[in-house]
Amino acid sequence: MKVLLKTLGFSLALTLLFTFVTYLLPQVEGEAPVEKVVDLSSLTMDDFIALGEDLFNTKGTCTLCHKPAPLGRAPDIQGMNTVALSNERLADERYQGEAKDAAGYILESMLDPSRYVVATWGKKGTNDSESPMPAIDKPPIELSAIEMDAIIAYLQAKDGNDVTVVLPSPEDAASVASTDKKASDATALPAPATTVEEALGKYACTACHAMDSSDTLVGPGLVDIGTRLSMEDIRQSIVDPNAVIAEGFAAAMPADFATKMTVKELDMIVAYLVEKK
Amino acid sequence: MNDKRPSNQPERPSTQIRWGRLLWFALSMLLLVSGLAQAAEQDTTLDRITPIGMVQATGEPLTTKTTPDIADVDTAEPIAAPRPSRSDYPDIGVSSRAIVWILAQLHLFFAALVLAVPLFVLTIELLGVYTGDDRYDNMAYEFMKISLTGFSITAIFGGSLALALFLLYPDFMGYMMHVFGAQVLVYAILFFLESFFLYTYYYGWNAFRYGNLKWVHLSLGLMLNAAGLTIMVVANSWATFMMAPSGVNEVGAVVGNIWEIMKGPLWNPINLHRFIANIAFGGAVVGAYAAFKFLSTTDPDKRAHYDWMGYTSNFIAILAFLPLPFAGYWLMAEIYAYSQQMGITAMGGILAWLFIVQAVLIGTILLAGNFYLWAGMSRTDGSDRYKGLIKYIAVTLVVCFLIWVTPHTLILSASEISLLGGSHHHILGPLGIMPAKNVAVNLMLVVTFLSFQLYRRSDKVATVSWAPMGNALMVAIYVVAIVNIIFLGVYYGYFTNTVYKVGSSVAQVASTLVVIIAGIVIDTLMFRNAKTLPSHWGRIPDRAQYALFALPIAFTWLMGLMGYVRSSVKTHWHVYTVMKDNSPDNFIPTIAYAGNMITIVTVLFLLCVLFMFWVANLSSTRQAKPAAGGAV
Amino acid sequence: MQTNDNNSVLSMLISIIVSFVIALTFFYGLDHLVMSMQGLPLNPDLSPAG
């Protein structure tokens, strides 16, 4: 019996030691991309707003940049009254867009971010004529029209403003379902980029990285990346951007390129970057 | 005809000797030929990794030719993989994944055990026949006896696992049943076969002990192993189908026959890897049994027996353990060839951290194995000659181990980076990268082999005339190999380009293999007709037995860990690229959560194994008839 | 006696030197072989060629 206790105790202690090692390592969860199937026929406005908030924080990846100073790299829209802010922008004499109201302004900013760039937030060297923000109806973010409406609804509702977007109707749902199907088929087998330029555009690399200067946009400029990193390091930085983060930068790069890029695209981009010396 | 070996039944008629052996021989050949025929059917790599979904080989144009066009598919009415929504997954209040995780892992632990034990039992039995040493036969029988309950435990956990899967993942299981169809019935039939051979093999042990009947018995053992291995490879095909589906199109509709579905690109790598790992695992577990019996008794005869049994088990475990890294390398290479993304998920993403835990576990196994060998040297009188080397081996092992577990990259916040002055630590950085780790791993293998070689030499004195030359050559090979391994790692790893860095690791492994092969060859030749010094089984410190406990614990934990990695590389897919996992548990949990789960299954396994051993010993215990007075 | 001792020391020394020469040559060749098999030729001083 004594032997049993001793050996059992030894075995348990060893097991706990191994468990302890796992506690020393960084605790990260790998979230699966969430595909929300929204039943539009029974959707209430509250659901719609909640959906918008969720999209804002997750799939839309908005919070990577739109967050409070000093971390933010774009206006902190969650911390401000977005509708009042939008009306201010519309009244700005620099505003050249076509939007007539706050909802229209927000939608325009999502579809064509460079249409109006808030002072001091433009890409470096463009004198606030170009926005670092990617168009969010395009890959890699690819929000649908309904999803963008949901975000607008959320941005309006969060500060107590009236929600002006209309709920998608079941008829819309039918049409959306068919386009969604097309879209999801497209994501199952997207046409792979054939050139580096296409690939860089497809994954919106240039939204955050300057390719022809060492200026910092959101991420570091990559004009001389080949001198700083080896091919392995570049590859790792793309597929697992949070493993090594360049000094002075926060973790902002999408971590799902590994599951989105085809092998060939990844190879093209890596080969292109490694030559940048 | 004229059996030269000492026989236990010398009076048996000589004409009858042959048929038993013939049966054995014919069966072995039959199995060998059918195995080779299967292997010969291998297609080219590109055919085997026929792309499904987005997967394609590097540099290849996107292949679409193999997928039949949609019109064809429609007329054939194939059933695509279901796309369940979250509400389609039954919610029973606790994590479904946790339940399946525990049941599957326990099932696999026991399956591995009961698959491996008959395998080396048969080998030991054969050894007994060829050496005529009854000790082997008795030990083989004892191994069989203590693992007998394991077969039912395996079946119980297997049944529970199937029930849990059908209950908790009905859509997924429905799809798997649809894909594999009648194959599951074949699987069921194999169970009947396995049970038949198991019980005849075990209960017939003493009835078919000598002469022709022994060969009948060996044939039964062979068939038992054949049935067991077939069960394993059939079950493996389900796991590998989930990782790398073949025989279905990109929406999961079945387009191939069952054979095309089974022989996916990862099937054979997994088959080999599991086969070898099972032997190591089984050896480690029965070693713990021997250690326990050794510690529980003071009878010198029993101690000698269980010391020998523990030594043999440990020998089996370590021997099977050494080629495992190479089988693992093949598996990983095939995973990369199948899908670079999957490979990166395993080796470069969140899961990469688990390989640090793996390093700790393998380090534990190597240290325990070495420690046991060193302690075992006290059995022989000739070991003093080598004892001085042990401390250097120990230091090398510990230093290499520490280099090996130095993390490569750290996920750091901006403030932590500025504290460290860069994302790589300026001292740890150079030690954390691959070349340093390659040097460390190879040196660990080399010195472990040195321990083993010293142990084997400790009870022998060479009598051949060229012994000094042989020793000098062996020393030279060790020294030059170690220098070469360090040189390759440092020079190509830090001072040349990446391609040479990767290439040099192959040369390092080659150096390690040369040491092992040269060691075996030289020792075999040199210790022919060697003078054997007396060996005292049972003369080993008690603390050495704890190494025999550390081994199975580390093996069990390691299996749990790597099984988790294997399963998790699918990320949010039930069947990779074909059927998405929309259950609430479709994310990769934190490392500590995984660690907790693995510890739970390890402890449960430990308890079940204790039960299994206890029951085995119960059968040989007989309660004394109570005295009439009732005094006990 | 003296010569005998010298002989055994000498033969010991020779066998050690011979062993090391064999081992060094072998591993030198092995490095060249393994690296060139992977398409990574080496110069005679083991530095990368080409």
How is this structure best described in words?
The complex is a heterotrimer of chains A (277), B (632) and C (50). Chain A has 277 residues and is an all-alpha fold. Chain A has 2 domains: 40-188, no CATH class; 196-274, Cytochrome c-like domain (Cytochrome Bc1 Complex, Chain D, domain 2). Chain A contains 11 helices and no strands. In chain B, strand 3 (573-575) and strand 4 (579-580) form a beta hairpin. Chain B is globular and about 75 Å long. Chain C has one domain. Chain C has one helix spanning 2-37. The model of chain C has no long low-confidence stretch (mean pLDDT 85).
Furnish the topology, listing elements before pairings.
The complex is a heterotrimer of chains A (277), B (632) and C (50).
Chain A: H1 2-24, H2 45-57, H3 82-91, H4 102-111, H5 145-157, H6 170-188, H7 196-202, H8 225-228, H9 231-239, H10 257-260, H11 263-274
Helix pairs in contact in A: 2-5, 3-4, 4-5, 9-11
Chain B: H1 17-40, H2 45-48, H3 70-75, H4 96-131, H5 134-168, H6 170-180, H7 183-203, H8 211-243, H9 258-262, H10 267-296, H11 300-321, H12 324-338, H13 340-347, H14 354-376, H15 384-405, H16 414-420, H17 428-432, H18 434-457, E1 460-461, H19 467-495, H20 498-526, E2 531-532, H21 542-568, E3 573-575, E4 579-580, H22 591-618
Antiparallel strand pairs in B: 1-2, 3-4
Helix pairs in contact in B: 1-8, 4-5, 4-8, 4-10, 4-22, 5-6, 5-22, 7-8, 8-10, 10-11, 10-12, 10-21, 12-13, 14-15, 14-18, 14-21, 15-18, 18-19, 18-20, 19-20, 21-22
Chain C: H1 2-37
> What is the overall silhouette of chain C?
rod-shaped
Return the structural class of chain A.
Answer: mainly alpha
Query: pLDDT under 50 segments of chain A (min length 5)?
Result: 174-189
> What is the average per-residue confidence, as pLDDT of chain C, rounded to a whole number?
85
What is the molecular shape of chain A? globular
N- to C-terminal distance of chain A: 70 Å
Proportion in helices of chain A: 40-55%
Overall strand count of chain A: 0
What's this entry about, in short?
The complex is a heterotrimer of chains A (277), B (632) and C (50). By secondary structure, chain A is mainly α.
